[in-house]
Design goal:
Length: about 120
Amino acid sequence: MFPIPENTDFLLADAESKNLYLNLIEQINKDFNLANEGIDFPLSISPEELKIQLHEKIYRMIQYKFAEYLNLLYIIDVSESEIKKLDGSDLVMLAEQVSFLILKREWQKVWFRNHYK
């Protein structure tokens, strides 16, 4: 069964421990590019830097490119019900929470692909 991570740090640590961190980066790059949101995280990026850069990207998209942000969530297939549960009063916190939901969904794709290959 898919282990649901509690937070971003646990998720990234789990990806590293299972030697799937590079697959996670590739999946994130692939889905962002499918959404025409060019992002190219290098495979050498540290988990902490990935977390920071993803948060910044989502924050900027919410502020300046909201339609593209919604399209990205659709392409990645982030749960609409989970998004609706978030409090949008603080954009910084919202971007952090959405970044986690994106990472969680991308990790789920990578985990299932590896587990059932």
